[in-house]
Fold this sequence. Notes:
Strand order of the largest sheet: 4-3-2-1-5-6
Distance between the termini: 16 Å
Number of domains: 1
Structural class: alpha/beta
Mean pLDDT: 96
Number of helices: 7
Number of strands: 6
Radius of gyration: 15 Å
CATH topology: Nucleotidyltransferase, domain 5
Strand content: 15-25%
Amino acid sequence: MHYFFVDAETDGLYGEAIAIAAIVVNQEGVEVDVFCGKIQGLTHETIKDEWTKENVLPLLGDDLTEFENGEMLLEAFWHFWIKYQQDALCIADVQYPVEAGIFRKCVEKSTKERIFLGPFPLLDLSTLLYVKGIDPLADRQILSGLKDTRRHHPLDDVRISAEIWRKYNG
Length: 170
């Protein structure tokens, strides 16, 4: 079995996916596969949401594969998920509305074929923290101990989530 950690950045909480990252970790905690992508040509003019412009856009550097548009980004992410769907527990941090919405959009692209292929269950890191008696909105960098990370960068965020899961899921 594997753990599939996912984080996405969207143009506003309910907007289009602009960047998605996922890592697959084995039971020993070793990262075995990575997906990280963003829409090419993102600028202050192409992003509608002010919070996203200020807090996400400046962090989306060259370490994410560029996709021509949001549809291509979602499709590439979906194919990455399908490689592990049978053998992985999917985990996101505060998974609604962003990551849950990403999976829903992926399924809706071909509902007949994909209706039962989304993550079930989609586990939530913030719920694990709450059950462990930790504030579910506590600073993730502090909890993880990973200090050299960028907030709201999807690849850093999934690695932070994986480290927190490893530390507190015991």
